[in-house]
Amino acid sequence: MTFFDGEVAQAAQPRSTTAGVGVAEISHRAIRDLLSDLVEGSLDERELGRVNAHLDRCPDCRAWCDTLRATARAVRALPREQAPQVLKDRLARLSEP
Fold this sequence. Notes:
Number of helices: 4
Largest sheet: none
Number of domains: 1
Structural class: mainly alpha
Radius of gyration: 19 Å
Helix content: 55-70%
Distance between the termini: 49 Å
């Protein structure tokens, strides 16, 4: 399930500004900051265990992760095209001192 699915749309809504920020909210932010590394496979064993344990019990963060994975798959499926030579030349000139 991803954020594109209707069932988890609530997870995408902003939290109340009057609610206190507790440990759980900080934990959600910390976990979401690690999701790209999870998808790339670059988490160390300790972080991987922590993230997976959180995802097992948190449908909101699991939806974020599923959306990130779906996005990564979609980007990898895009055709790879060569940049036009004129663009390559222009970028090379920009990097010259």
